[in-house]
Amino acid sequence: MGSAEITTRMPMLRNRAKSYGILPGFGLTLGTTMIYLGFIVIFPLLALFVKSAHIDVHTLAAQMTSRRTVSAFSVSISASFYAAVFDAVFGLLVAWTLVRYRFFGKRVVDSLIDLPFALPTAVAGISLTTLYSNSGWLGRIFESMGIKVAYTPLGITLALAFIGLPFVVRTVQPVLDACSRDVEQAAASLGARPLTIFFRVILPEIVPAILTGSALAFARGLGEYGSVVFISGNMPLKTEIVPLLIMTKLEQFDYASASAIAVVFLLVSFCIVFSINLLQWLSRKKYGET
Amino acid sequence: MTEPLPDRNTLSRQRRAGRQADHQLEPPVVRWVCIAISLVFVVVFLVLPVVVIFEQAFSKGLAGYLAALADPDTLSAIRLTIIAATTSVALNTIFGVAAAYAITRFRFPGKNLLISLIDLPFMISPVVSGLLFVLLFGAQGWFGPLLRGLDFKIIFATPGIVLATTFVTFPFVARELIPVMQSLGNESEEAALVLGAGAWRMFFRITLPSIKWGLLYGIVLCSARAMGEFGAVSVVSGHIRGATNTIPLHVEILYNEYNFTGAFSVASLLLIIAFVSLVLKLVIEGKHDSRD
Lengths: 290, 292
Description:
A: mainly alpha; B: 80% helix
């Protein structure tokens, strides 16, 4: 190989390096990714949308405005919403404690937060139902106060709050940890009281993270099935959630209705996830992080 | 200053320790109230449900617990769960490594879209995920007539359960690996190539060893979810006892038959898997800290 040949090939090589680097395997890895993604995710989703496109508008409208569907959507959305609010409050408290204080058993508590992620939903479902039923350890206490938890919308909210808690804690924790203490000290030296510091200095910095975390919990709660199906009691018009309604339609082999509800449900979830991304993008832009 | 400069991590650790010491602007009573409420909350809200599982599982003693586990239907559910989980975890691991490599090592248009598409299964309700495959392969689905002609069942049979599990656990390994590979950079891989290693040699000697802990954690998360998946599998399984029941579905059946000891005994198996994944996370985080 003459040196002339090398010099003529060099610019080309450098160009390639700029756009791709010298690493091999671009075609193989991206190809595998695309083919697998196409088969497992994209193709089935397309099938659902094509299938629901065949449903005529009147059937769809009738299905979506039926009392049972409307009530299922309202139960699902309201329970997920209250659960997200619950998670925002307690998630913030736990994240705050874990970030700011040192105490005995902190690492154990920190790993326990992931428990709802790790625990299969059906297991969470039966154990929460047992715990909060009239004869359960906690259900008995609520019962004596005249509150029924299991087989009511309150029970659904509780199960969803259990499932969604890690989302808030794990989103708020790193942001709270990164909060600059200098600003707090500056505020304190200028005479701000602790509460003022919390509401005027710390809270504004972590509000985007709290919102993102609870939006994630909300989105997860909306689609949740396993942990809710046991504790809800599944009474149509009262404690029936959307995933359960889809399940019921499927068991009756009413695929058209099931697909119609599923598509609307899917679009609602996509809107939520889109707003979460928008929220994160906005907060990044505001705080100039990368 | 004759001392060598501390590295970045020691610095951050010192900074963190310093913060702990000097930031206590709020009165101590706030601190104790926060710790107390958090601890009580975690115990009541997260620990009690776990305690209930064991209390119920052992309500008829160890013999009752073991009898529930030795039931032939339970054993068949365990077998099916292992088949479904290993298949889907293997597929998603190969995909996850390929996807993370493509995304972190190359620049190409549409990369952000690809990342969002990989996350898609996380946004979809498990029940809807199951429905997707019923619409494709069910009796009335697109490929229903074709499959009937071939006398091959996907829905209400093992292939459907594997497909649904694969769909639901699709993003786990890729998502775990992308940040790991991003932070590692590709200098050592390039060095290996420049020194004459072939592509596969580079991958097995450089890439794979450097991502092993992230990969392992991704696989563990993926397996835990694959074994515990309920909603999606419930739609495609048909709940045939001893044939198309996975462990979570078997738990549901036992529970609905008011066989609580049985249900919670079988559920405790899944709980153990959950604990293994939590402990492994701690171990891996420890490894990361000591390596850095």
